[in-house]
Amino acid sequence: MKKLFIISGSSGVGKGTIIKEFLKRHPEFRLSVSCTTRTKREGEIHGKNYFFLTEEEFKKCINNNEFLEWAEFSGNRYGTKREFVENCLKNNENLILEIDTKGALNVKKLMPESVLIFIVPPSTEELEKRLRGRHTETEEAIQKRLASIKSELENSKYFDYQVINDTVENAVKKLEEILLI
Ligand code: 5GP
Q: What total of structural domains would you count in the chain?
């Protein structure tokens, strides 16, 4: 692996959109596909967006030490497969992980040379508007996600870079400045 970049940001901040646009322009970067126990959203594909696992399957992976890191977020579990990261390392590839801030700080401990990037919303009001606007979560799930914003911001103090997502174009340019050096 050339370099490991970890991108985090609160739910609804638009990290998915920014990363997708970045990858379109720089297809030589790889994006890790995580495992999760949360239910599949409409349009999501197993093996592309996530590997959707049952609680049982996820626990098995934990017990077999298959995760480089895993965390509970908003009532569901999410994890990065060790094997995927190790393969990228062997193949000398630049890898992006899109994971929560707890996971990011855990990976930084294991791999101190990794670069942590936090995507910041223009405002908290805008974040809530976006989160509701995508109509992918129940009200209960939205409340849980809003409640996690504070701890995510707290954790982001230890990140290497902060990128404000005011427009996709600006945010992608900022990412390019960080990832292409
Ligand atoms: P979502 O359910 O919206 O797809 O993701 C919820 C949160 O889980 C996001 O902050 C996302 O970055 C994070 N996440 C996704 N995959 C992983 C992972 O493998 N590990 C950790 N720690 N967080 C993840």
A: 1
Q: What is the pLDDT along the chain (181 residues), one digit of tens a residue?
A: 589 999 999 888 889 999 999 999 999 999 999 999 999 999 999 999 999 999 999 999 999 999 999 999 989 999 999 999 999 988 999 999 999 999 999 999 999 999 999 999 888 888 888 888 888 888 998 888 888 888 899 999 999 999 999 999 999 999 999 999 8
CATH number at residue 9: 3.40.50.300
- What would the 3-class secondary structure string for 58-73 be? HHHHHHCCCEEEEEEE
Residue 103 CA, ligand 1 centroid: distance in Å: 9
Q: Is the CB of 73 under 6 A from ligand 1?
A: yes
The tokens describing 132, both together, are: 């509701």
Count of residues making up the chain:
181
**72 near 39, Cβ under 8 Å?**
no
